[in-house]
Amino acid sequence: MLAQLRIRDFAIVAELELELAPGMTAVTGETGAGKSILVDAIGLLLGDRAGSDTIRQGAERTDISAVFELDQLPAARAWLAERDLDNGQECHLRRVVASSGRSRNYINGVPQPAQALRELGELLVDIHGQHEHQSLLRREIQRQLLDDHAGNQALATELENCYRNWSRLRRELHDLRQAAGERDARLDTLRYHLRELAALNLVEGEVAELESEQRRLANASQLLETGQRVLGWLIEGDEDAIADRLNQSLRELDTLNRLDSHLGPVGELLNAALIQIREAGAELRGYVQDLDLDPAHLARVEQRLTAVHQLARKHRVGAEELPSLRTRFEAELDALEHSETRLETLHQAVKDALEDYRGRAEQLSERRAVAARELGERISQALAALGMPGGRVAIALERLDKPAPNGLESVEFQVSANPGQPLRPLARIASGGELSRISLAIQVIAAHATRIPTLIFDEVDSGIGGGVAEVVGQQLRTLGYSRQVLCVTHLPQVAAQAHQQLKVEKQTGGETTHTQVMPLNADQRVTEIARMLGGLELTSKTLAHAREMLEKTASTTPPVKPSERKH
What we know:
Elements: E1 2-10, E2 13-19, E3 24-29, H1 37-45, E4 61-69, H2 74-82, E5 90-98, E6 103-107, E7 110-111, H3 114-124, E8 125-128, H4 139-150, H5 153-181, H6 183-200, H7 206-218, H8 220-236, H9 242-259, H10 264-290, H11 295-315, H12 322-337, H13 339-385, E9 392-404, E10 407-416, E11 424-425, H14 432-445, E12 454-458, H15 466-480, E13 484-488, H16 492-495, E14 500-509, E15 512-519, H17 522-534, H18 540-556, H19 562-565
Parallel strand pairs: 3-13, 3-14, 8-12, 12-13
Antiparallel strand pairs: 1-2, 1-4, 4-5, 5-6, 6-7, 9-10, 10-11, 14-15
């Protein structure tokens, strides 16, 4: 839910910080005070386009931020986790709009495009009464709401998995059929290439060994000459050989060591050096003796390297990749040689996958048809209580021409707002007030299934009054038991049903005008409800009436328990 909202320099708000509670919150105030500013600010935070009046007069930027609690929002947590933005049980959103029109957007402190705010916002908040944020206008949301109401989530997920499996097998079959069309030509090409590779018979790691051998053979004369010279310096020279000089030094130090034992370590080091020199000389002698000066051997190595590089260039791969290329060609040849069997197997697999999909899809269609009739009737009944007598909602299921991930039909909510009017798609309802009340009816009926935790109703009571207004308030309060509800209203019957109330006031001082929003305590709520009932002049009767309305609400509906306020 929306736990905290901060607004700075937005429209006529200089600075505002609100702690928001679960349940139903009514937002009230004088006409023109700016009651919809909270709604507009939240809309801007969730990616709405910033208009020219976004920034408060005289300010350089608008800064809006909010904290959402995610403890019961797995979809939002998953969205954040996929983008490495998860920050535990809370989500912090922020948007800064500069006077230049450019905006900076942040999710949990990480800069993000405005589109990311819109995507995440659709999982957090639903604003009713504004077409651009009305999720119920979208066909996929209507389908999802119907499935959630009918308990079809598991079956719908299974169906989507079946569709993906069927689509994958169809692609494989298509690719294999295309390859089969060129099968004979490709078989000839593969066999020719494999004969060349088999004749070369290059093994893994052989290229590196050949190149090392070629370098050694090509430089054998230099290696031999230098090796013999170093060998002479080490052990095979006359008395100037290093080993002879070390041996002589050891004998003389041995004599001196008898005179001063401190020379003992020096002698030990020289003795170790002498051992190393003799071992190095022995190794070098063996290397020199084994050097191959055979030009024919060098020619054979160079000839093989040439053949390797020519074949690698032909296939446009590195020389060391030829063994793995041969393996790939062999696998492709085997697949083509058995492609007819594979075609038959895959064709049957596609057929079985489609039958599996259709079986689940028909089952889902039957469940949707039953749920659509029942949900449409219940919403229609709710509309009558909300001041739309004769209003009717039907949920149309239109059969699709081909399988789709979500089933064999599209789902569309259709509405007739008045008796005698034909049913029309919900998205084509012209009246914002009608749309808000229809949305309210749908949300109340399907409150147990809807996934969005915070619902905002902007002037949902437009054009109604009296008993209908009280029913609207009761419906909003009922919805507040399972969702966080913010309702901008001018009707006391609706405001009195709220669990808490915010008052919006416009204040003018000198040449400046600003709006502030204040949470109301119990006594302040009585005064505000009385103002809404009787205007600016408060009488003892209007105050008594206001107190009676609030006491009646408190006595007829149980308080929202903390466990019930979680979403």
